[in-house]
Design brief:
Radius of gyration: 20 Å
Number of strands: 5
Low-confidence stretches: none
Shape: globular
Order of helices and strands: HHHHHEEEEE
Number of domains: 2
Structural class: alpha+beta
Largest sheet: 5 strands, antiparallel
Length: 171
Amino acid sequence: MSERIAGRFAIFRNNKKYRLLQFRCKKWKEYLSTNDHIGFDESDWVRLVLPEKRILTGIYKLIFKHFLSYTKWVEYTYKLYSNRYTRKFAKELFTTPIPKDFEVWEYDNISGRMYAPNGSEIPYLHFLFFKKTKYLETDKYWKGDYWMLQNYGLDNLRKILFSLNGVVGKQ
């Protein structure tokens, strides 16, 4: 279940509608010319792709927010804007973790597979909370050269490990 499109991996039909959809956003030129983070895929874009979500969110804010959590609202209304009738399917695969001290993510450089600390395979690892970010108040993030691999040469590495302690290559 997902309440929005977080565009690191999203598939759309290659047709005129989806190729030109972003230009319907009134601020698209402004967004392209700024150095600031916009989050276009999670805000303006999702409202263009899922207009029914925008309507349902408005209904929630006007009527239901006083007695129903937003999480429950998303759970209930998800079926309305992600189903076989609208031919839209949105599914969040959580790949943006808030890392804990003991957790290690593993990239197998031989097979090209990425693994979460629980051993499950994930399509990629989003490093948002490994870095200093405005979205999380914490002193636990990569500082200095934490993100740099030693000069092993990538071809010589069997595994690459990611944790709050940094990035480590294993031969």
